[in-house]
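Practice problem: predict the structure.
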Amino acid sequence: MIKLSDYSTRPPQGIEKKEIKQKTEQFAERLGELHQLLLAEGKHSVLVIFQGMDASGKDGAVKKVFRDCTHNNINVYSFKKPTEEEFAHDFLWRVHKKVPAKGNIQVFNRSHYEDVLIQRVHGWIDEEKYNKRMKAINAFEELLQFDGNTLIFKFYLHLSYDQQAIELQERIDEREKNWKHNANDWKEREHWDEYMRCYEDVLNQSIIPWTITPVDERWYRDYIVVKTIVEGMEALNMQYPSLEDK
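Answer:
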C-alpha cells in the first residue's frame, strides 16, 4: 500500500548534484538516439504521463527530458477543461484521439487522470463513478499496451506542501514567471490533503505502476524521469531495419 508520506520529495542524502546532472545529460542524449530507433523500427509507441500538483514542474520536465528528441515525432498535449463536444462523449473519448502512433512519443502534461482527481476532490463525481472510471482507465491503458504496442510511463511528480508555496509565490514575485500565475492555483492548494488522498488511491489502484518522482529539487526530477524512460526503451531491444526489411 502506497502512502505518499513515506516518500521523500527531495533527493537522497549524500547524492552529488554535479554528478547527477552529468548523468542526466548522458541519458537525454541516449533518449534522442532511442527516439530515432523508435521511429525507424516503427513497431512501438511511447506514452509518457505527467501528473502532479500545481507547480510540480510538469512543463520543466518536458523541456529538459526530451530536448534531444526529433520534434516531428514527439507530441505534447495538456488536457484542459473539456469542451462541450467532449462533455457530450465518454470521458476517455478525447484521450484516445491523442494516443501515439507507432514510431511516436506522446507526452501528456496532465492526462485522463484529471477525471478521477480534480473531479473527485470537488465532488463532481461520486465514489461509484470514480471506481468505474478507474476500471475504465486500467482497461484503456492495457488496451494500448497489448493492441497498440505502447510502452507507458507514468510519473507522479511528488512535491511538498512547503515547496509548492515557494514555487507559486515565485510566479508573483519574478516577472519572467508572471505569465504562469493563476490565482486559482492558491485556491486548489486549500484542498491539499484531499488531493493527497485521491492521488494515493490512484497510485494504489493503477495496474500499470507509477514512478513516484521527487521534485523539490528539479535537477533530481529530470534525472529520475529520463533514466526511467531510457531504461524502459532500452528493454525493447529495438533495431534499425535493413534494406531486406523494406
